[in-house]
Amino acid sequence: MASARDRVLDAYETLLIETGPGAATLDAVAAAANVSKGGLLYHFASKDALAAGLLARLRERSASDADAIRAADGATAYYLRTSAPGGGIPGGLTRTYLAALRVAEHARDATAVRDALAAVDADALGALRDRLGDPVLAWMVQLVGDGLYLRTLIGTPLPEGLSVDDLLARLRPQLPAES
Fold first, then answer.
1. How far is CA 25 from the centre of its chain?
2. Which residues contact 73 (CB under 8 A, 6 or more apart)?
3. Would I find Transcription regulation among this entry's keywords (predicted)?
């Protein structure tokens, strides 16, 4: 069972994604998490603290995903498949990332949000660079994954008749054997 802190962050993510930052009040988050407002305030003393908790969660999930990229049998395939619509990055990174984008819309400290999003970008690029050994190739793979990820975030399917396997088939001649 999820801790009260995780339930609060889950509820905050849901409200941000489904109704937007304006509707994600402390009262609404507490109600959605099925905790008292005092219980919410125990973990997050303010809305800014709640946003900071979300950004900390984003960084944790990003670091876990970078570890998964490094450990994957086929880092490029893992990265592109989990970036594509329906691919689903394990651990909720996509959902937390989308919620963080919504926080950015109304953040008092936009720098903290930009820094967290930049850390996600750097985590993935670093993991790809580690596995591919070529910084330009790693960046190219990341850019392809970014395009797929954007489709995931906005709900756009892949073009009819094309798949991630088609992308991988074109990229494989450029990739080291175990990437």
1. 22
2. none
3. yes
Answer yes or no: is 100 within a domain: yes
pLDDT digits (tens, 9 = 90+) for 23-75: 999 999 999 999 999 999 999 999 999 999 999 999 999 999 999 999 999 99
Shared domain for 64 and 100, answered yes or no, is yes
Number of domains comprising the chain:
2
User: What number of other Cβ atoms are within 10 A of residue 55's Cβ?
Assistant: 23
Type of residue at 14: T
Convert the pLDDT of each residue in 76-94 to its tens digit: 999 999 888 877 766 688 8
What is the C-alpha to C-alpha distance for residues 154 and 30, in angstroms, rounded to an integer? Answer: 27
Q: Which domain holds residue 126?
A: 59-174
What is this structure's pTM?
A: 0.88
